[in-house]
Design brief:
The structure holds two protein chains of two kinds.
Chain A lengths: L2 H18 L11 E2 L56 H15 L3 H14 L4 H13 L3 H13 L5 H17 L3 H13 L1
Helix pairs in contact in A: 1-4, 1-6, 2-3, 2-4, 3-4, 4-5, 4-6, 5-6, 6-7
Chain B lengths: L15 H39 L7 E4 L4 E3 L6 H10 L3 E2 L7 E5 L2 E5 L3 E3 L2 E3 L3 E7 L2 E9 L5 E3 L4 E5 L5 E3 L9 H11 L11 H14 L9 H10 L6 H17 L2 H11 L1 E5 L2 E4 H10 L8 H10 L12 H17 L5 H9 L16 H12 L4 H6 L3 E4 L3 H18 L2 H6 E9 L5 E5 L11 H4 L2 E2 L5 H9 L10 E4 L4 E2 L5 E2 L10 E4 H6 L3 H11 L1 H10 L18 E2 L1 H12 L3 E2 L5 E5 L5 E4 L5 E2 L3 H16 L17 E6 L5 E7 L3 E9 L9 H14 L3 E2 L9 E7 L4 E2 L8 E6 L14 H13 L1
Parallel strand pairs in B: 1-15, 3-4, 12-14
Antiparallel strand pairs in B: 1-11, 2-10, 4-5, 5-8, 6-7, 8-9, 13-14, 15-25, 16-17, 16-30, 18-23, 19-22, 20-21, 24-27, 25-26, 28-29, 29-30, 32-33, 32-34
The chains are: A mainly alpha, B alpha+beta.
GO cellular component, one term (chain B): outer membrane-bounded periplasmic space
Family (chain B): In the C-terminal section; belongs to the transpeptidase family. In the N-terminal section; belongs to the glycosyltransferase 51 family.
InterPro entries (chain B): Beta-lactam/transpept-like, Glyco_trans_51, Glycosyltr_51/Transpeptidase, Lysozyme-like_dom_sf, PBP_1b, PBP_transglycosylase, PCN-bd_Tpept, UB2H
Chain lengths: 193, 772
């Protein structure tokens, strides 16, 4: 296997990813709820279910206020999902950069320790998992690297740049592990984006 | 030597002269014998002294730390929780300038950290400024010290692993001890330390004269060496023989070892206090214990207090007898000034200062017995008990004190409200909380009395899981999208299974009703039994077993169909492991209580890294997650929202076994996964269900913690469609019975159904589209 190539391509792929995801506040897509609830609902409204409601026979008129729903009525709550994972908050980004530096110095264990701190801060951000995969490639643990790449991909959502980075990284890792078919498949996924 | 005895003369020759020489001879022989015995005794004592001194001198217990609090912009914590964290780590409310103090002004905190050597590097001292608003850290900045957007506080010590004698100490080397402490100690306890040979006859004489004059013991003539010998090798009894031994051993010790070596050992051995059954030895630990500071950071008034306490650690205990301790401290300061260790001015200033104690002992033993129990079991995989007790290891755990407190409070407050009388007495509970994506165990409650170090139900109570098994049945089914989708109609209708041996099994719904055909998502979110068994039998028990094993069940799983209703016995920790994979979209994440272990010198010994392992198709898991959210909103878990804000999206599942013997709830938010169990140790019946027993404990836990809602990222190959589940057809967003449901691509229905929605709603729908 050619570790250099893997790392280089991973770095390149991740650079693309990280460049897009560095300027952000904390939290990203998920709704943060302080104890007792949050009255500043800034996050996009989750998809709603429409269950017919006998009382809901009102005629819509332009002058009317938006319907105020009962807080306990189930129709205000609906299963939630996100189109993409969270972006990296600044604190996590600092740790990722520190990890990068350690990787350059050949200290993959030190890099992993920092990335795990970053992962605790931003557990729904695919970049962190791709970076962990990169650190495990450097530490010659390709099995773990593949798993972290898959985990990162599961959080990439509709972010095509992130998806492409992930599939290419996965292809490199699979090829290095001798899984040519798997690598080709991953590459095809990247190309299809 | 007896050979030299001169040949005997005749008996008759006896005379006074002869008698005298016989006496001399006897005396000579007796003396010689004594000398031999003494020499032998000395050899023995020497062996005792050297073997004990040479070998491992101290057994140092291992220290167990909570996870360090990370502070950065956006960190989720309430102001009250931050204060509790600071107190637990031994911080004092103060000026925010002295290391180890904080100052609060409304929302704004100024914190001066002490710094800490973590296994992955040193966190230097810093002065931090931050605001806590909406349970989040904001405007975080470093006012003094290395700038960084993220800073770790020192971790709170939450326990120790002690040798049987329960001596606790932090070893210090002589060059880490402040010079004024060494000089002060000598000024007070042993002025001739560097000159004498172990004992100081002059000092003893002086002390004797003083004691005779006073008519009581006012002065001791013991050197530091003698004090060390007394503590190190001998019992506390006051006999002449012991005094003799002490003197002899002191001399021997001085013969073998140099002064610095003896002094260093003394500083680590000296007994300075008691915390329950744990005894506080050495100046290193005493400094931590009384001031919450490491030895190198304490001031001269604190140094003087420690020196003063050598004379009588309980008599001068500064927490119990502050005035007495203060007087003693000031006396020591005077003596230090007199000996020239400090100036008179310094002594006066130091005498005017308060004692400078930390708010309370930096931790009390046994605060988290259930959690420490699990830590010890994990440690036992890699470490021998005797090493844990003696090598001074540092164990960095994942315990989150805030979450732990929330879970404890939830269990102790909720349980008495769940029943009355004898049943209430007998009710027990267990709670496990983990970080959803890391698998770190944040909190563990082993019973309704969280301080009681007894039966750890979170780990050892293996009980049938009831309906907690259902998500795994449906996951197995939904992994075959060509056969099952969330709107597949399933039969809610009674049936009887007849086994080969003639026995019959007739499962029933909890409410005894039958509903005919229901959509799959509804069958799961309402936890109907009959469809679950039918679907389970359809996909096959082996397939369900395989799913459970993939998600982490290691114990044997029954082959009987009753397993489809949860006749699988698991502990709450096992259930947390099982649900981890559901919460993280099909990635198993082994539960961990330990991040790292280092030796006493901060050399890493083990690291327990994050591991992930994909065990299921994220798309199929996403569908199950959808239904587990529906469970919370419309199904068996909806009563959680009596306590929790609507904006906190959650996913979960109730579990109940026959006659309410076990009440379970397992569920997760964006950040946390929690499992609660309520039941009786004697496995007796209760009137509880998963929703009325475990769920209140679960939601009371969650309600105390600020966190992200659950909003899983839509995986590849999943599409959401508006459908009419009853008619199994696509429909419009604003039509009656329309529900936005995820499908594995290609498994969505093909036919459309007409829209019977009211006109008003359709018009509104068009306008929403127009103005978006």
């Amino acid at each position: 296997m050619n570790k250099q190539v893997i790392i280089r391509s991973a770095c390149l792929a991740l650079f693309v990813g990280l460049a897009g995801g560095c300027a952000t506040g904390p939290g990203g897509g998920s709704i943060y709820v302080p104890v007792g609830g949050d009255d500043r609902r800034s996050a996009p409204e989750p998809p709603r279910t429409n269950i017919p409601d006998e009382q809901d026979e009102q005629v819509w008129r332009k002058s009317e206020q938006p319907t105020v729903t009962e807080p306990d009525s189930p129709s205000t709550r609906a299963p939630s999902y996100s189109e993409s994972g969270d972006q990296l908050p600044a604190a996590a980004l600092t740790l990722v950069r520190d990890a990068d530096q350690r990787l350059r110095q050949g200290d993959s264990a030190g890099a992993i320790a920092r990335l795990e701190r970053a992962q605790r801060i931003a557990p729904r951000s695919s970049e962190v998992y791709f970076k962990l995969a990169e650190a495990y490639v450097a530490g010659d643990n390709l099995g773990a690297a593949e798993q972290f790449t898959l985990k990162g991909l599961s959080l990439a959502g509709n972010d095509e740049r992130m998806q492409r980075s992930g599939w290419l990284l996965l292809a490199d890792i699979r090829r290095a592990r001798g899984n040519v078919a798997g690598a080709d498949q991953a590459e095809a996924r990247a190309a299809a984006l | 030597m007896s050979k030299k005895t001169p040949p005997r003369k005749k008996k008759t020759e006896s005379s006074p002269r002869r008698k005298r020489s016989g006496l001399w001879r006897f005396l000579f022989r007796a003396a010689a014998l004594c000398l031999v015995l003494l020499a032998g005794w000395m050899v023995y004592l020497d062996a005792v002294v050297t073997s004990r001194f040479e070998g491992r001198r101290f057994e140092v217990p291992s220290r167990v730390y909570a996870r360090p609090l990370e502070l950065y912009d956006g960190a989720g914590i309430s102001a009250a929780a931050l204060v509790r964290e600071l107190e637990l780590a031994g911080y004092r409310s103060g000026d925010g300038r002295r290391p180890g103090t904080w100052q609060r002004n409304g929302d704004r905190f100024v914190i001066s950290t002490r710094g800490f050597s973590f296994p992955d590097g040193k966190e230097p001292r810093r002065r931090l400024s931050l605001v806590v608003r909406g349970d989040r850290v904001d405007s975080f900045s470093v006012m003094e010290g290395d700038s960084s957007p993220i800073v770790r506080l020192e971790p709170a010590q939450i326990g120790g692993i002690y040798p049987s004698h329960r001596e606790d100490r932090i070893l210090v080397e002589l060059d880490e001890v402040p010079e004024s402490m060494i000089a002060g100690l000598m000024a007070v306890e042993d002025r001739q330390f560097y000159e004498h040979f172990g004992i100081a006859p002059l000092s003893i004489a002086r002390a004797m004269v003083a004691n005779i004059k006073a008519g009581r013991i006012v002065q001791g003539g013991s050197t530091l060496t003698q004090q060390l010998v007394k503590n190190f090798f001998l019992t506390r009894e006051q006999t002449l023989l012991r005094k003799g031994n002490e003197a002899l051993m002191s001399v021997l010790l001085e013969l073998h070892y140099d002064k610095d070596d003896i002094l260093e050992t003394y500083l680590n051995e000296v007994y300075l206090g008691q915390a329950g059954t744990r005894s506080i030895h050495g100046v290193g630990l005493a400094s931590q214990f009384f001031f919450g500071e490491s030895l190198k950071d304490i001031d001269v008034h604190q140094i003087a207090l420690l020196i003063g306490m050598v004379k009588g650690p309980s008599y001068y205990n500064p927490r119990r007898h502050p005035e007495r301790a203060r007087a003693r401290r000031n006396l020591v300061l005077d003596e230090m000034a007199e000996a020239g260790v400090i100036s008179g001015q310094e002594a006066r200033e130091a005498s005017a200062r308060p004692l400078g104690l930390s708010a309370k002992p930096s931790y009390t033993d046994n605060r988290y017995p259930a959690y420490i129990d699990l830590v010890r079991r994990h440690l036992a995989r890699d470490y021998r008990e005797e090493d844990l007790q003696s090598e001074g290891l540092r164990i960095f755990t994942t315990l989150n004190p805030e979450v732990q407190q929330a879970a404890e409070k939830a269990a102790t407050d909720t349980l008495p409200r769940l029943a009355s009388g004898e049943v209430a007495e007998a009710l027990e509970a267990a709670v496990v909380v983990t970080a959803k994506d890391t698998g770190e165990v944040l909190a563990l409650v082993g019973g309704k009395d969280p301080r009681f170090a007894g039966f750890n139900r979170a780990v050892d109570a293996r009980r049938p899981i009831g309906s907690l098994v259902k998500p795994f049945i449906y996951l197995t089914a939904l992994s075959q999208p060509e056969r099952y989708t969330l709107i597949s109609p399933v039969q809610d209708k009674a049936f009887t299974l007849e086994f080969d041996d003639g026995r019959r099994w007739q499962p029933q719904n909890y409410d005894g009703k039958e509903r005919g055909l229901v959509p799959l998502h509804e069958a799961l979110s309402r936890s109907y039994n009959l469809p679950a068994v039918r679907v389970g039998l359809d996909v096959g028990i082996p397939a369900v077993q395989e799913t459970l094993r993939a998600f982490g069940v290691t114990t044997p799983i029954s082959d009987y169909p009753s397993m489809l209703l949860g006749s699988i016995s698991l502990s709450p920790v096992d259930v947390a492991q099982l649900y981890q994979g559901l919460a993280t979209s099909g990635f198993n994440t082994p539960l961990r209580t330990i991040r790292e272990v280092t030796d006493a010198a901060n050399e890493p010994l083990s690291r327990y890294s994050l591991k992930v392992d994909q065990v299921a198709d994220p798309a199929a898991v996403h569908l199950v997650q959808y239904v587990m959210q529906e469970t919370m909103q419309e199904g068996t878990g909806r009563s959680a929202y009596y306590r929790l804000p609507d904006s906190l999206t959650l996913a979960g599942k109730t579990g109940t076994t026959d006659d309410g013997r076990d009440s379970w709830f397992a569920g997760f938010s964006g950040d946390l996964l929690a499992v609660a169990w309520v039941g009786r140790d004697d496995n007796g019946p209760t009137a509880l269900t998963g929703a009325s027993g475990a769920l209140p404990v679960w939601s009371a836990t969650m309600a105390q913690i600020p966190q992200h809602g659950f909003s899983p990222v839509m995986p590849d190959g999943v599409q959401y469609h508006w459908v009419n589940p009853g008619e199994q057809a696509l429909t419009g967003e604003n039509c009656d019975n329309a529900r936005l449901i995820p499908f594995i691509a290609g498994s969505e229905p093909e036919q459309h159904t007409g829209c019977n929605g009211s006109l008003g709603r359709q018009i509104r729908g068009w306008f929403e589209g127009l103005f978006q």
